[in-house]
Amino acid sequence: AQGNDPKETVESNDAQSTGVAGYDDGFFIAGQLDETDDDGNEKTRHFRLEIGGRLQTQYDLLIAEEGEDLDLARSRFLIRRARLNVTGHFVSPDFTYAMQAAFDRGNPELLDYFVNYAFEPGTFEGRLGQWRVPFLRTEINSSGSLLLVDRSLTTSVFGEGFDAGMGIHNNYKKSPPFEWFFGVFNGTQTDLEVVSFDDANTPTFFYPSVVGRVAYNYGDIKGYSTGDLKGGPLRFSLGASGMTQFGLQRDNESATKATVDYILKAHGFSTSGAFMLATNQDGEALTDQNLFVTGLFVQAGYFLSEMIQPAARYSRVDYEGDDELVHEALGGLNVYFWGHSLKWQTDAGAIIVETPNDTDTAYRLRTQLTLSF
Amino acid sequence: AQGNDPKETVESNDAQSTGVAGYDDGFFIAGQLDETDDDGNEKTRHFRLEIGGRLQTQYDLLIAEEGEDLDLARSRFLIRRARLNVTGHFVSPDFTYAMQAAFDRGNPELLDYFVNYAFEPGTFEGRLGQWRVPFLRTEINSSGSLLLVDRSLTTSVFGEGFDAGMGIHNNYKKSPPFEWFFGVFNGTQTDLEVVSFDDANTPTFFYPSVVGRVAYNYGDIKGYSTGDLKGGPLRFSLGASGMTQFGLQRDNESATKATVDYILKAHGFSTSGAFMLATNQDGEALTDQNLFVTGLFVQAGYFLSEMIQPAARYSRVDYEGDDELVHEALGGLNVYFWGHSLKWQTDAGAIIVETPNDTDTAYRLRTQLTLSF
Amino acid sequence: AQGNDPKETVESNDAQSTGVAGYDDGFFIAGQLDETDDDGNEKTRHFRLEIGGRLQTQYDLLIAEEGEDLDLARSRFLIRRARLNVTGHFVSPDFTYAMQAAFDRGNPELLDYFVNYAFEPGTFEGRLGQWRVPFLRTEINSSGSLLLVDRSLTTSVFGEGFDAGMGIHNNYKKSPPFEWFFGVFNGTQTDLEVVSFDDANTPTFFYPSVVGRVAYNYGDIKGYSTGDLKGGPLRFSLGASGMTQFGLQRDNESATKATVDYILKAHGFSTSGAFMLATNQDGEALTDQNLFVTGLFVQAGYFLSEMIQPAARYSRVDYEGDDELVHEALGGLNVYFWGHSLKWQTDAGAIIVETPNDTDTAYRLRTQLTLSF
What we know:
The structure is a homotrimer. By secondary structure, the first copy, chain A, is mainly beta. Chain A has two helices and 18 strands. Chain A starts with 14 loop residues before the first strand and ends with a strand. The interface between B and C is large, with 70 and 61 residues.
């Protein structure tokens, strides 16, 4: 390492290093370090760094009904996602790390930065840092492998986004037969500054949100990639997640969310969907929960050829208390130039907002090129 | 790719990968992937990633006349540009990508993120994403190969900066004999949020700014690198660009800009310059345009030796309506340690602001080290 | 380099490039370029780029006494440091560069971006750009090799952080026997915008802060890495730094800071500490300085085995004028899985704030995993 390097380096008594670089499902640098420790034992250490990016450039058009006319509400080019990521393993293939920074829309921010250690690979692993809370299936699903241009509108209502915390799991993103995850998170993505509990007169030592998820996966399914790009026989996954935000309990304001979801693929056809609900505390006890919003979506797509996939989705969000119902129906067409790494997606449809007195409709069209290198 | 990698990867049935890394006008990782598809056909895919940066550290001094005295208006070290970029090609050398993030002055933001596909290399290419709008020659010119410490003051008046959009061209940055670009952009770099057209009662489906540029290039000129670093016989380029911002038409506020420019190099000598004008709509019709500002600059430099280049520039901006005239005259000296990649530039001069009642003068000195790796 | 590359490239008449990549105390790409100049002379140019990161994920608990009770003031997961860095050398091993960006807590910013040239390696070197001002020993010390979870609270009072400037030195971070640094900096990290001196009626051409540091290093000590990870005989370092901020002189507000510090290591034991003071101008002359705050800390640690190191620190800050005294006492335990590159640190203790009328106590617990790749 350089003399004026900001990083601190490991010193080894006797080490030999070999390396290689290239492209293998991602640009990489990999190296080995053969060490001899003080007792003469040899060990080989493994290091890998991958550099990747994702660019999603979108044209986004939104037209709203206003009275009897249609009004242009939005017409723009949008750098929907401008990502840079660095991932790999360090010392051992079982100790992995991932960093992802977003430069979307000109506001850089950290999305992922975590380490993952496989105590028993695929059986018992631990993760620490910041990453997307694995509550909704559609949020675990990479933004680079969505069935339509973007996620369902239910995601912005029920999703958890990126949060700092820790969890244990059995490599849930790889869809093992009985998949599970359990974790604790800050539960306050937007405010990581000092949280003061003025009204608390007893020390309370832990106020996190807790998240649990299980799924049953049948067949060799990739449960977190929509679309049946590679084809194959019938495969499916059934999942369920729950989370409770204890953090707001102090004002009798705890919140609970739950979801059940599925994905099914067969011979180029795929369908997936989910039902979600959220409750708010409505009394002094944590169990006095009041249902205030439910959501669901269902979507399906089919590969007409290796490259062409039409798809459609229906979503709805029902605000129980406010008597407001939002529907979205979208149809789309995807063209895969190089799998999910280089593809062009277009979708169009309507968003309808129903209230007791009024019904508003807006029409949208989005077309987006994705490059994931 | 790693199991907990944020990016989604391509799966190939049967692929062999080879790779290499090093320095060749930039640090790079390159790889090939030899694929056999289902029909037994072999294809070779090409991948390349380059990592680069640019650091421009400047000492900046500004002294203003105030009454009869000279006052120090500014004395500072400035991290003028702190860039990190990732560029390369993906699947084919004809499909290129580029990302550039700026960390200048502590405010990170995305500058470039685009893809470029050469349908016919050098003849017909398409570009999509965010990059510097190719309106002014001096803006297409990289900030790493300027003749003086920074661009002319006309650039801040007439330049378009970085914007999201799409365009077609014949590899304009490489100065083909008849160079052309045509594109559409958001035209609203500073506000990518919802644009509401409250006063519109008809749906209007496209409100972009459109930009066109042509140039004639004689000899093997690099039209977007000032200075004749390599020497050679007489070469020159003549260019013209126009743009109209339809986006503001709704309030009878469309704007139009035009420029003509040149660059000439011969035997170590170089000169370049441009004239620009901008009009504002001044009536109900799009054609009711009112000239409100003009600008011009001319600059020249000469290599006394391989490393030493004195240079000078005169710029003026004339605000027609406001009766204000701004001049800038600068002289400078450049020392090239390793071409444009490692050089030290110094310039000094005066800025004069003339109004009917007053003439203000300020003196500036800037000295800057550039590293582009 | 790519045609649509944002960076400008060096052209060489006749150059051959060879390269290598891997892991050697950091992921790297290195290359050589054998050039033949116009006179037929051969030169070999050396290039190296290293990519690294640092992730520190912390659980942070703070409990404050309020009246007779203890109150939870803070309980959170914290992405304490989320860094990405690019370092290396360019053209020659003597010309090094370093960039470090922080994505901590979701607010990306530039920390380091500088170049360093060794005119005489280890004897006379120059540095230009932005980096951590080498005033406090504990700030020169990388955040990846601290003895406890974070720096002493004296650092937030007396530290200078990252600033733009230039300096000369004899490779001070490598602890040569007689180590020295002298530099000038902006002195205004938080405000790099126009500084106007309204009350000055004479032009004044330079208003920087100046910093000097010297140290005597005995034995083969790494003076800027706490802890005696590798063991060895007695080694120590004694240092002293001073700085004056002339920038505020215009309002008779110049400030001066000074520190003396030490570090000693022997056979797995290490101790370090510092005394600091700061004065403010208290009259019209620059020499009318008034002491207003002093600070000190002392810390020690011992390796019980190759991996396990208990440690402790006492810090105090004494605000002379305000009659306020802050103490902090911490005990900690460090587990080194792979040197400083992968380690787990925990510390706990009390912060006591004494004023003439009151004594407030808070208790803290922090546990943090560090990965530096």
